[in-house]
Design brief:
This protein is of the alpha+beta class. Helices cover 52% and strands 19% of the residues. It has two domains: 32 residues, no CATH class; 93 residues. The radius of gyration is 24 Å and the shape is elongated. The relative contact order is 0.09. Bound molecules: zinc ion. InterPro entries: ATP-cone_dom (IPR005144), NrdR-like_N (IPR055173), RNR_NrdR-like (IPR003796).
Amino acid sequence: MRCPYCRHADSRVVDSREADDGQLIRRRRSCPECGKRFTTVEEAVLAVVKRSGVTEPFSRTKIIGGVRKACQGRPVDEDSIALLAQKVEETVRAKGAAEIPSHDVGLAILGPLRDLDEVAYLRFASVYRSFDSLADFEQEIETLRAAARAREGAGQAGAAGTAGRTN
Ligand SMILES: [Zn+2]
């Protein structure tokens, strides 16, 4: 790394530490030529490839914006949205790829959003999956109902088990 003071071509790392929960590495460097110190920040680049082929840096803020729009008028607080965006970032970073299609980012949003609010999920899914008919909505709602029934069934089984132990 070139020294920003004297433009000497080399510098020495004197300290490295993680920041932002390990997402960043800050390095304190020292120039052997002029002796000045400076800091560099290293961060893994995660690029999102849009359908047009254009890439842009992954942005948690953008996820929050999209999800917030889908949650308009719904009883969802900002903390839940921020947490969802964090989950999405963890999911896409866990793939370990330097580039990720925007389609996959949308996919990573759908799961946690469905758990958060089904109406917001439907709104988001209708845009993301380009629903163009009522049938698309009907199919998605049927899937949601089936998932809810499965959850209810599991809940009742659990309740029955508890009752059995009490009696
Ligand atoms: Zn220097």
